[in-house]
Each structure stands twice: as C-alpha cells, then as structure tokens.
C-alpha cells in the first residue's frame, strides 16, 4: 500500500473508526485488550487484509481518544500474536497469516491421507467474532446464553472446601455430575448407571478417545455427508480413512450404507440422530432400526453424537429416535455435551457406553489428557441439579423457533431454497445455486463469515449448499448480500 | 468368604471401623460421599480385597452412627461405581476390578506394540488416597498445597463480566496467561513471545499434541530410562516405538544415546533436564550440549518436560541447565505446567516452541480437544500475576528440603541405598536389593502404595529400584515395613 492509495486508506480508517463505540473504560477488559480484540476481529473478518498499513500510533490514539501508550501496548501485543508486523520507520502492517496446517511436514509419508483443509474455517469459527457477522458459525450468540448461571456456579464452588480442587479428581469424571447425567439420559429412555459414563473435554475429546480405542491407521470410519467438519481432520490425523454416507432428510441413505459397509468394513460410524449438523434433520425410527441391523451384520460400532439434544422441541414438533434408546448402549456409544447450550468454554462433554467399555475409554482418556478438570464439571452439575438448565434450554428453544421462522421467511423472499426443510434446530441447509466457496470468499470481503458446503463433506468438493445459523441472521447487510449474490441465480 | 471365616471378617470390620473419625457432619461432602470415598480408598489400598463381604447395612449404620438410608445410598453408589456387587439375599461384596487395559482388543494387529501395563499404577496413582499411605505417589500432599489461592481466584473470576466464559476462547490459550508465561520463561533465560506459547490440558495433553504432530505409527520416540510411566502408554497407543536411554546422575548415557540414535533414527527424544522423574537428578551443561549436537546430527526433535521447574532450589544448591535455554526453542520444544505445584485439577499446562510450530501445534490441539477451558487458565494467571505463586513455591521448596533431609536420614537408618543422590526435588530413587514388584504387592496388603522401578522403564522389567516421594513418608508404618522387608537384604 502506497501513500497514493488514498481511497483504500480511507476505508481502513473508516473500518477502524467503528471501534470507538466498543472502547469502554467501564468494561471488564482493559482498553489495550479491547483494541487488540477489535483489530483481531477485523482481520479475522478480512475487513483488514494482509499488507494493509495500520493508522499510526498518534492517529489511532487521537481517533479513539486514548493515550498513545495504550495504542503502543495494543500494537505490540498484536505483533506478538502475529497479526501485525512492524516495519522499521514505516509503521505497522497486517501480517500474512501463518500457512494452513499440513500433515506431518517433518515426515511426508504417502501412506496416510493428508489432514483435510478444514483449518481455514476452524480457525475462523473459533475466533471470537460478533454473531451478527457470522451466519456460518456453529454456536448461538453470546447474548442468548446465560453467563450469570456460570458466574453463580463458580462463586458457589469457590465457597466449597478449598482443598477439593487440588488432586487429580476421579478418572471417570466428577461423580455427582455423572449421577445427574444418569437422570438426563433416563429421560431419553437410555438406562445407564454413573459407572457407564466418562466425562471429557467436550465432544472433540470424546471422539478422539473413542476413535483411538477402536481404529488403527488405515482403517475406515464412516461419517454422514454432510456432517461436522472438525472430526474429518481429527480422524485423518490418526491415520483413519474417512468415508461419507449421503444424508437424506430422514437419516442416511441406507442402500448406500449397506453397499459401502460391505466394501469398506468400517470400524465406526459416527452420526447425529437428532438435529443433525448441518441440516437439523432427525432420524426416522425405521432408519435407526435399519442402521442397527447393518451394524450387527457388518460388525461396526456406532457413535451417536447428541450435542444438539436439548435444542430439540419434543416429538410433537419433530419425531426423534436415538439409536442409543433402541440399542441401550450395546453397539452404540452415546456422546453428549454442553458447549452448544451452556458454554463452549467449560469444555464439558461425556461418553455413555457399556460398563466395560467405560473402563477402557477411561484408561484411554488418561493416556490422552489424564483426568478432566472438575471445575467445569462442578459448574455443569450445579446448573443441572438446581433446575436452571431446563429453564434456560426452554428459553433457547423458544428463541430458536422464532429465529427459524423469520429466517425461513426471509430466505423465501430472497429466493433461496432450503434443502431438507425441518421444523426445529439451529441450522438450515440451503441451496444457493452457486459455488459457496466463491460466495464465502465474497462474503468475507464484506465482513461476513459463511460456512460453505464443501467444508461439511469429507471429500471437500465445491458445493452449492451452505449452512445457515438461524440465530445469526439479524444483520440486514447479510440479507442484502444474499439477495444481490444469490437471488439472481435462483 | 463364608460365615466361618471369622478372623478375616473381624479384620474387615476393624478396617472399616477406622472410618468413623473420618465421617463428619460438618464436612463439605455429604456423609454418603464420605462413606463412598472411605470404602473406595480401602479397596484401592487393598485393605478390602476382592470377594470380601461388607458389613450389613444395619451393622455399618450402627458402627458409624449414621442412618441406614445413608448406608444404603452409599452402598448403591459403590455398586454403581463398580466397587461392590450386591448378591441377592446375601449382602454386598467387594467386586473384582475391571480387567486392565489391553490395546485394540477389537482389532488385534500384530504390527503395533501393546499398550504397556502401566494401568495398575496409573489407576491407583490417580485415585484419591491419603498421601501418608502413598510413598509411591507423584504428587505433593494436599495439605502442602494452598486451596485458598484457587478459591480466591475462582471468586475473582466469578465477579468478572459473566459473558466472558461463554465462547470457545482463543485457540492458543488465554492471552494474559501466555504473557505471564513469557515472563516466567524469561527468568529461565528462554526468550519467547506469547504467540510461541500454546496452553494445554496438562503435560499429558501437551505430549500427545507434540507426538501426534511429529510421529507416525511405527516410528521411534526416545525416553529416559527410568522416566515417567504414563507417556509410555500414550506413545504406544499412537503406534510409536518407545525406546529408553539409560539415565545417569548427570543426564543420559551419551555413548548409548549416540549408538541408539544412529540405529533407530528417532523422531523425538522426551527428557527432563531439571529434577528428573523419578531420580530428581538434573542435567549437566556438558551433557545438555552433547545432546543438542546429537539431535542436530541425527535430526531429531527434543521435548523438554520441565514440570518440576519450580521445585528447583536454584543453582547454588544444584546446577540446572535447560536445553531450551541453550537452544532457544529451535530444536527443543519446552513443556511446563502447574499440576505438581499448584493443583492437578486445574489441568493447566503449556508448550513453548517456535512461532510456526506453535501454529501447527495449536491446529493439532484443536483437532484433539478444540480449545482448553479458560477457567483454569484464568486461575493460574491470577495466581502468577498477583505474586502468590512465587511465595507459595518458596514455601514448597523449604518443606521439600526438610522432608528430603529427614527421609534420607531415615533411609540410612533402615539401610536402604539412595541411587544417584541429589540435594533437591521431591523424589528419591532407592535401591532396595529386592524385586520391588513383590515389595509393592506386600506393601499394598498393608495399605501402602509403592512405586516399583519396573513401572518407570519402557521395558517394564522387574527392578530392585523404587521411587520414593519425600513428602509422603510421615507414616511410621511405612518405615516399619521398609525396615522389616528391605533392611535385612542390604
């Protein structure tokens, strides 16, 4: 960027000028931290692009009415974090982000599949961006959550005997939480005792524990196509072969599943029965039964990821059959968690399985991370056992229903088709009629994060589908963008 | 056990009769929970052995002056947890513990080494046993720790903006903690910026992240022999070949290292330079330099586990050279954590490495567990930044010095030789002159957990050595046991 690049420079200033309203002396975080976060999110949104020159320290300080020391400090941190670079005598520039992950560069080995390129979305998805800029995000907006529930629980824990949080804690997880989860599963008609439950650091940890127990390098794991992208990378990283089973409105394509199971002899099939990500469809009872028969016939284990469980509004609105309920955890391993409904930061998930398998998976958990922290588990226990969780999820479901209706109507208006329309859940799987990789790139230029369909498929091919988060569609700019870019195609 | 087995029955009653003093209505945990823990720890200690019949509910209730409902509830929980089984019409019995872990029983595959049988010790080590019964444990006694530090920090966090703990948090870890760690490493003369640091769920998680990035199944990882047992299982589980390098008083046997490096072309060498586990020896500067030269020559990466860092009393007492200080994180990856000095339950560890590698390892962390919880990281940040940590570790070091002197004198008195005597740290590596597997078994019968030498060697061969925790030698029963069983051999 040269000094004659005036319009672009003006744009950067204008983008950064959005910041003052965010800077607040009353806020919990320091001004420095606020500036760091603001610049970071603008870079993540690509509002500030690689190579752009930042305003000088003096300019920034004046524009935001903060001291120059504050700006120096913030820019220094941004350099330390790799977002900016300082060029001697010339100022600060937005830095080229580090190269995307590649598998085992140290030791290229043709035998193992490469880690799939899910890192771009992963990095962005898990950066803290404002929800209204992220129709592609997989979480609900922070303001839909109830931070006080967590603060209050933490305060309660801080008052308990102070030596409780010194030791490693129980390998299987905090017992009162496991007892509480027993009750929760009983409501889904899944009968377990606490010794059948193993807590984990979220579902990702649970998937790693289970897959590392069952699958050797070169062996096959089935996933739905489309499905949650991060696990493709996790499984590929352990040398497993990931194969997608086409997902239809009522569950997987059974003919295809039978065919591929005979061909590949998978060790595991990881699926979501209720409010599947990214389609929010749920499994029919008939399909659930057929899958269990195929699992028996081809001797594979099913991993049922039920992270969206508490967003389901009940069978009056949408039928829901869990494989774990039919099979009672003989051939099905159940995974649950609280990242979507309570807080992603607590990192509390769990595995429910047979008693023997729970022992094996506990040992495996120990080898991966030793125990899990009891703090998050005590927080979840308190919120569940004191009845707050139920009320909180009631509220979430009402809000989701409203957001969903509104989004569906607006999609109709701009002429975008919903594929596999379903009545509940936080996602809509829409067909834009154009390559959503290209669309996501364009959206990024305008500061919006979309989730292109290619990411949700283990084969990563370009797709005209994308995932929409019905809780993150409030910005009129998104609708203008979609109307301009997509409305014409359909 | 039959009704005529009166002496044994009396013994069980007597063992359980130790409990009343532990049951307290004022305690933070419920009576039910207290009974559960008491019985559990007696089973772990093998004071209650498989097949033993528990007192009837009536007997237990009378003996401990609690209601029968309380006992019913406690026994039920113990059944649910797999410690007891209920035989209809006959009462409650101590159950056979679940079989030890075996690798991939589902899919035996001769190519990969089996998980080593470290599970017996692992399970016991991480069960909550009173420290005075566990000379073999790897942690300091709870009462040496400062639970109030953690409670106060949690209270502080609960007062912060309640929406802070909703999102996933930063992938690399809580930034203020990473800034604090930058200062901590600077004191060790290791220059890093926060973007070179990745937080983890403890050192075990860190080892898994690093090893899964560098090592393919079938490839070789070097460890010290003896060294920390859990990692043998972690590495074996990912299909790596684990080979031990003999550890001498001033570091590894360099001749052997050179020979084995040429032969096996390892990808990683995981070592402890300062207060090595289990010998508490530290590396000489000359050896540190030689290792770095060999790493260069044979192109392997060094992982320096510095978990005992803050137990080191300074170079006046014992010289300490870290490879990371010499190499400045080019070929060395530094691991640190707070499980030994602050709380194992917080599960806070970290990796320090080059900037690029930090990005790769962050991606790898995301694939294994997504982000780490900020709660533990905020707790550690507060304790470090408010200066409490330094004072607390000062106190720990003073106590350790006293415990160590006392233990060394008593070992002399009972005639047990310390191998590689060193002036600091929490462990002594002693030579008993007899098979410590047998000795540990005998100790268990008396309710003491020892750590036999076989566990610390990747080849798991019987050994006359064992590891002693100088902070856990206060029970006179241990000394009587050692005098009787070992004193005669030497």
Can you walk through the features of this model?
The structure is a homodimer of 490-residue chains. Chain A has 490 residues and is an alpha/beta fold. Chain A has three domains: 6-94, Winged helix-like DNA-binding domain superfamily/Winged helix DNA-binding domain (Arc Repressor Mutant, subunit A), CATH 1.10.10; 119-145 and 391-485, Alpha-Beta Complex (Aspartate Aminotransferase, domain 1); 159-386, Type I PLP-dependent aspartate aminotransferase-like (Major domain) (Aspartate Aminotransferase, domain 2). The first copy, chain A, is built from 17 helices and 14 strands. In chain A, the strands form three sheets. Chain A has an eight-stranded mixed sheet with strand order 3-10-9-8-7-4-5-6, sandwiched between helices. A four-stranded antiparallel sheet of chain A has the order 11-12-14-13. Chain A has a two-stranded antiparallel ribbon with strand order 1-2. In chain A, helix 7 crosses helix 14. Mean pLDDT of chain A is 86; it is low at 1-5, 14-22 and 98-118. Chains A and B meet through helix 5, helix 6, helix 8, helix 9 and helix 13 of A and helix 5, helix 6, helix 8, helix 9 and helix 13 of B. Chains A, B: GO terms for molecular function: DNA binding; DNA-binding transcription factor activity; pyridoxal phosphate binding; transaminase activity. Chains A, B: It comes from Glaciimonas soli. Chains A, B: This is Aminotransferase class I/II-fold pyridoxal phosphate-dependent enzyme. Chains A, B: InterPro entries: Aminotransferase_I/II_large, HTH_trans_reg/aminotransferase, PyrdxlP-dep_Trfase, PyrdxlP-dep_Trfase_major, PyrdxlP-dep_Trfase_small, Tscrpt_reg_HTH_GntR, WH-like_DNA-bd_sf, WH_DNA-bd_sf. Chains A, B: Pfam families: Aminotran_1_2, GntR.
